[in-house]
Amino acid sequence: MKKYTLILVLFLTFGLVSCEEVIDVDLDTAAPRLVIDASLKWEKGTDGSTQKIKLTTTTGYFDQTIPAVSNATVFVTNSSEQQFDFMEMLPGSGDYICTNFIPTLNENYTLTVIVNGNTYTATEKLMPVPEIDKIEQKDDGGFGGGNIEIKFFYTDNGTTSDFYLSRAQLSRYSIPQYGVSNDKFYQGNQISDIYSNEDIESGDTIDYTLSGISEGYFNYMQVLLSIAGNAGGGPFQSPPATVRGNILNTTDINNYALGFFSVSETASINYMVN
Fold first, then answer.
1. What are the structural domains of the chain?
2. Which end of the chain is less congested by CB atoms within 10 angstroms, N or C?
3. What stretches of 99-226 adopt beta strand conformation (E)?
């Protein structure tokens, strides 16, 4: 257990007198846990050959630096046992890059990470995504009718149960907005994804990306987005220690990793607000 000291400064309005009270806060600490950021994305219109997987560890609550993990063996295999190696191009970065990945829709891929005597694995299917059909802008959106509202439309294929992850990045914001959806009530129909923000102005740009995801990743992101919404942050800022993904430690089941292995086809578009 690590003890942190917080100093509270109280200002008494009328007397203009300040006082300090020292409060000791006891925070439980645990051994660092591996975090695997392995979201492989195949953008429509590209060959998808370059992919990245990032390895880090958890750290203390008040620590500003996220430790990178080096000297790991990282690779992905398909159902034909074709292996795609990920190499840490910049030593100490924790960024493992593959430049010859071959994406195939509905193909099963297995991730393997070997580090510090432990082997971590996960398997996912590369999920397809529809094209973005059109974009509509409404200038009297929002609850009060004073917000600009942007709608992105896409058509579900109607033959399978599909799950989607959306990402909208407003040019004036550093943190994107994420959302998840499924076709439970929209099988084969056109679906709209709405982005609205009171700060949107004419001339702003919105980068919008739609990804096809598995049901497992859909459930995982639902939990992350719920936690991030309550905390006021983004889902990828720091992984909550209680959220388990699909990555298993086959060496020591109790020494599990955080993160999720996903493989998605994506469709992206950049829209300028009128």
1. 34-128+233-264 (2.60.40), 132-212 (2.60.40.10)
2. N
3. 108-115, 118-125, 132-141, 147-155, 163-170, 177-182, 190-197, 205-213
